[in-house]
Amino acid sequence: MTDLFHNIRLGSPLLHFTGWAHLALAVMFILAGAFDPTQVYGVNVWLKPIKFALSIALYVWTIALMLAPLATWPPTPWLARGIALTMFAEIISIALQSARGVPSHFNNTTPFDASVFGFMGLMILLNSLLVFGVFLGYVWRDLALHPLLISGIRTGLVLFMIGSLIGVIMVVLQGHTIGAGDGGPGLPFLNWSTLHGDLRIAHAVGLHALQIIPLAAWWISTRMQASSRTAQALTLAALSVAYLGALILTLRQAFAGKPLIKM
Fold first, then answer.
1. CA 86 – CA 120 distance, rounded (Å)
2. At what angle do helices 229-255 and 147-173 cross, to 10 degrees?
3. 20 to 30 Å CA-CA from 93: which of 142, 226, 242, 259?
4. Which of 26, 18, 74 is nearest to 48 (CA)?
């Protein structure tokens, strides 16, 4: 574990700090939720910033690890700075709306609320462009990494960007629930709808490919050393196709108005 955080810090000291800062914010939001009973859509108003803070910490640390092999590439420091900036802007906006006791996403109730949501959308768009920049680094640069790990990182980045596009769909639809308005019964903590389709599931599947696919590539490259590179590549390809299938399945299920787990 110590080596992991050492590598994160080497990849980007700024993103290393950003991750720890968001974990600290998550603790603050948990405490806020304990004292503030305000609810939005039937759940404590601080649940969303808690989830986002934890997700952002995992995200920026993953990106830091991916930036380490790109250390000599001139755009790398700017990619790290941009990602840190957009994530701090995102979590501050969400926390501001939670403190006001109103939804942060898809909230156009007042000009101010619409401005906050529009600003958040702009930050996420910028972040997506920065992630595409990381992807270009793994396409253009000759890297001293196992070829399978490079393939896994590229695939994870592509699936992450597909997951981001599902976020765009939610913005266009002005909500994430299919078959009803946002809110209502949901799974514990995740709050995914247990009665209707929920686009957040496919969105999350896509975004977390950023961790799962490269991790699978690393596992295959270390645990299947006796196998040929062709066998390793085919194994990763099969897992990647299966993961893409899961993303498509959860997206189709959401648009069909069906919950992941009906309760």
1. 9
2. 10
3. 259
4. 26
Look-up: residue for tokens 């974990």?
Answer: 23
CA angle 128, 161, 91 (to 5 degrees): 45
Which two three-digit tokens encode residue 254?
A: 């959401």
- Does the pLDDT value for residue 263 go beyond 80? no
- If we measure between CA atoms, which residue out of 132, 115, 114, 259 comes closest to residue 185? 259
Residue 1 pLDDT greater than 70, yes or no: no
Q: How far is CA 222 from the centre of its chain?
A: 26
User: What is the average per-residue pLDDT within 76-104?
Assistant: 98
Burial class of residue 256 (count of CB atoms within 10 Å of its CB; 0-12, 13-18, 19+): exposed
pLDDT of the residue at 229: 86
DSSP 1: -
Q: Which two tokens stand for residue 16?
A: 């290393």
* Model confidence pTM above 0.90: yes
Taken as a whole, the chain contains a residue count of 263
Integer Cα distance of 77 and 86 in angstroms? 14
Q: Which two tokens stand for residue 68?
A: 């380490």
Confidence band, pLDDT 50/70/90 cuts, at residue 170? very high
Stretch (H or E) spanning 43: strand 43-44
198: helix, strand or coil? strand
Residues 22-46 have a mean pLDDT of 97
Q: How far apart are CA 13 and CA 21, in angstroms?
A: 12
Phi and psi of 169, rounded to 5°?
Answer: -60, -40
